[in-house]
Amino acid sequence: MKLLEIDDLHVSVQGKEILKGITLSVPEGELHAIMGPNGSGKSTLSYTLAGREGYEVTRGQVLYRGDDLTALSPDRRAALGVFLALQYPVEIPGVVTLTFLKVALNAQRRARGEQEFDAVQVLRSVRQNAAALNIPEDMLKRPLNAGFSGGEKKRMEILQMALFEPRLAILDETDSGLDIDALRLVASGVNAQRAPDRGILVITHYQRLLDYIVPDRVHVLAGGRIVRSGGPDLALELEKSGYGAVVEVA
Amino acid sequence: MTALARSIGGHTDAFRHDFARREVELPGGALQWLQDRRRAAMTAFTAIGVPNRRVEAWKYTDLANLLEPDLLPITGSGDADERVSPLLDESNHLRLFNGFLSRCASDDAIDIVDLSALRGEVPDWLRENFGVLACGPDQPMGAASLALMRGGVAIRVRRDNSLALHFSNGASLRPCVSHCRVLLLVESGVSVRLLESHTGETSSGSLRNIGVELILNANSRLEHIRLQKDAADAVHVTSLGAMLRRDSQYRACYAALGARASRLDINIRLTGDRSEAALHHVAAVDTGIADITSVIDHASPNTRSRQLFKNVAGGHGRVVNQGRVIVREGSVKSDSHQLFKALLLSPRAEVDAKPELEIFADDVLCGHGTAIGALDEDALFYLRSRGIPEEEAKRLLIRAFLAEAVEGFGNEAIRDSLWQELEGALTKAAKASR
Lengths: 250, 434
Ligand SMILES: Nc1ncnc2c1ncn2[C@@H]1O[C@H](COP(=O)(O)OP(=O)(O)O)[C@@H](O)[C@H]1O
Ligand SMILES: [Mg+2]
Description:
The structure holds 2 protein chains of 2 kinds.
Chain A: E1 2-13, E2 16-27, E3 31-35, H1 42-50, E4 55-64, E5 67-68, H2 74-79, E6 82-85, H3 97-111, H4 119-132, H5 137-141, H6 150-164, E7 168-172, H7 180-193, E8 199-204, E9 217-222, E10 225-230, H8 233-249
Parallel strand pairs in A: 3-8, 3-9, 6-7, 7-8
Antiparallel strand pairs in A: 1-2, 1-4, 4-5, 9-10
Helix pairs in contact in A: 3-4, 4-6, 6-7
Chain B: H1 2-8, H2 10-22, H3 32-48, H4 63-66, E1 72-73, E2 92-97, E3 100-105, E4 110-114, H5 124-129, H6 140-147, E5 151-157, E6 161-168, E7 176-186, E8 191-199, E9 207-216, E10 221-229, E11 235-244, E12 249-256, E13 261-270, E14 276-285, E15 289-298, E16 304-313, E17 318-327, E18 335-344, E19 350-359, E20 365-373, H7 377-385, H8 390-406, H9 412-431
Parallel strand pairs in B: 1-7, 2-6, 5-7, 6-8, 7-9, 8-10, 9-11, 10-12, 11-13, 12-14, 13-15, 14-16, 15-17, 16-18, 17-19, 18-20
Antiparallel strand pairs in B: 2-3, 4-5
Helix pairs in contact in B: 3-6, 7-8, 8-9
The complex binds adenosine-5'-diphosphate and magnesium ion.
């Protein structure tokens, strides 16, 4: 089954059309990369998929496991298995990270009619995943993302992805601003999440990440449209000739 | 200003007549020293009257026009109720019903005097300290509470201790006014925790007028946790005066959770070297006015004050934060900071914030800031995208906003009950904003 099917998607923000007819599908078990220059609409696409207010779908449709996704609230989407790692994770002073993780995890479970986890279960699960991402215990006791470095914030996003076990994960420039060690850590975190029943959409500006995460398909987004799609080699081609050439050919 | 205030003042005249008619019948009417202080207080009150918006310090809370036209003075306690403080604690428990001491359980390290029964022999500590603070023209309602006092309590604490003071009132057919005083004297070197709570489920537009005097002798510590939650049609004014002697510390966390209008009118004098005051305030309202107005007077060198006011207003609630910091000549190395923050949950909610500085000394550190805004949309989306439903996400963010002001006060049980009260008020505020 197609996990995600986007068909002729048009999205406006504050009356201005940003996405101008995107068609794209991600089958279960595949990892797709979306590449594109700054301002091409990558974050707009990811916010639209996550259900942020103010991103108005004016034409086209988005099906998630066969159902219309656009009518659902962000929290409902999350409970159904859609996860977005933000390009700029938000700082939330006053909410302890571990508390947040427990509240979020249990909210999702409650919405799905599953038994909530107790504090011990949450802690065990968080610890396991945190260790793999080199996230120290102390970070979990601090307010969520408050004063975290860029790399810490991105690792925290991947920790959440590991914890929530989504069916569809969208990673919006999770690689940007990371040094090479942090990049490797994040990439291995993502690779560990690849699974036959899971689809992953990796959004990136740079080819660099794709040295570590090999995609099944690569799509090039420019001016609010997918201008080219291809196999992993497309990323290498982009690196050699730059976006300009690819966009022109299209 | 004074003439105008007076010409309006039906209540001012009513208070004056009450005093003129009953002066000798009032508790302690036969004590000359007390009579002198009451007369001085009446003069101070009359200079301003029941303040209306033309009185600068009351421009955001027009008290005279918020009161019912006729207020019947409460002259007896009536049948006391048995409600206990919502800030549960195993400390010494005093209850005031309709402004009269109704129940009193305390140990022998505390001296307690029922102010409704003042006569004959009065302990020296009481005569020296009572009726000195919260009774000048800068706190006109405090002055009225002293002049017209019918009841209240004076407390002296001689050893480290903790006490709870719970105020409640009974049903009345007509709008009433109760004038009540509290004196707390903390002896040198002693640490005290004071839990003060006000609940008023019943009111028919009544006014609670309370004057509180806190005297911290050298090296003493007072932690003051105060919960004020009145009926939606009640008006509550507490005038608080504090005197901090050498090396003493006053830490307070005040919570204002509803009334037609509540005003906490504070005057803190840092009279002793190295004395410190830290005032934290949280307000959560969905209707009516929650006003905290403070004057902190750095009257000695090396004194320090901190103020952190955090307000959440929903529905058509209004919050008022005014803070004036005075640094007197010679009060070098004074250090003061005030920060007022408000979260508005509804377009009809309002906030008035006014920090002021009057500095007459060199080599001081004084700062202030205000921040007013709505809930952060980015944060709200972030939480929702993690599966947290909208209402729960809002509650989490509001709680996070207030947390800083409550942290570190009391013990876990006290904080839990404070949070429970806060959550109740926040739920109402959020509902009224939909
Ligand atoms: N909230 C907004 N209001 C108006 N324009 C926006 C808003 N967000 C993004 N845009 C515009 O939409 C376009 C795409 O932005 P974005 O999706 O952030 O691109 P990318 O993530 O590919 O860098 C840009 O031209 C940007 O200026
Ligand atoms: Mg972007």
